[in-house]
């Protein structure tokens, strides 16, 4: 009876760990994809190619819209809200072709998106 309980607990622990690693990998991959798209928007804004920047940003925003629900399942909702808020600010700055504001907000968004996989990484401090 005791061996059976230990086996069940071991299986649960292994499933938990494997699931955590899979989620972490998916989170890092999706984060990197968003960061790559952000870099593209930054390049276009630096070149003052506003139409290309807006097009690249629309693609980024669409990607974020699909990822947002999944990310909300595994991370803090306040951070998700901050990312969404930043996206809307960037959209307005791009529409107004406000170079310094859009670049500042793109940098802030880069931090927010890059920070989440680090924060959600399975470590001893996040376990306890």
How would you concisely characterize the structure shown here?
This protein has 128 residues and is mainly alpha-helical. It is built from 5 helices and no strands. Helix 2 (50-74) runs antiparallel to helix 3 (77-95).
The total of helices stands at 5
Class in CATH?
Mainly Alpha
Oligomer: single chain
CATH architecture: Up-down Bundle
Order of helices and strands: HHHHH
Number of strands: 0
Largest sheet: none
Helix content: over 70%
Strand-pairing-aware structural class: mainly alpha
CATH superfamily: Oxygen-evolving enhancer protein 3 (PsbQ), four-helix up-down bundle
3D architecture notes:
By secondary structure, the chain is mostly helical. The chain has a single domain (21-127), classed as Oxygen-evolving enhancer protein 3 (PsbQ), four-helix up-down bundle (Four Helix Bundle (Hemerythrin (Met), subunit A), Up-down Bundle). The chain has five helices and no strands. The two termini are 29 Å apart.
List keywords for this structure.
128 residues; Four Helix Bundle (Hemerythrin (Met), subunit A); mainly alpha; 5 helices
List the helices and strands and how they pair.
Layout: H1 2-46, H2 50-74, H3 77-95, H4 99-120, H5 124-127
């Amino acid at each position: 009876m005791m061996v059976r309980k230990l086996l069940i607990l071991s299986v649960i622990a292994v499933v938990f760990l494997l699931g955590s690693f899979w989620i972490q990998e998916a989170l890092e991959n999706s984060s990197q994809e968003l960061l790559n798209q952000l870099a593209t928007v930054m390049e276009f804004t630096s070149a003052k190619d506003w139409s290309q920047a807006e097009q690249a940003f629309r693609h980024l925003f669409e990607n974020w819209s699909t990822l947002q629900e999944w990310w909300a399942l595994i991370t803090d909702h306040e951070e998700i809200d901050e990312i969404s808020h930043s996206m809307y600010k960037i959209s307005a700055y791009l529409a107004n072709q406000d170079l310094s504001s859009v670049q500042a907000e793109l940098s802030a968004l880069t931090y927010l998106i890059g920070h989440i996989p680090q924060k959600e990484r399975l470590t001893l401090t996040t376990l306890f």
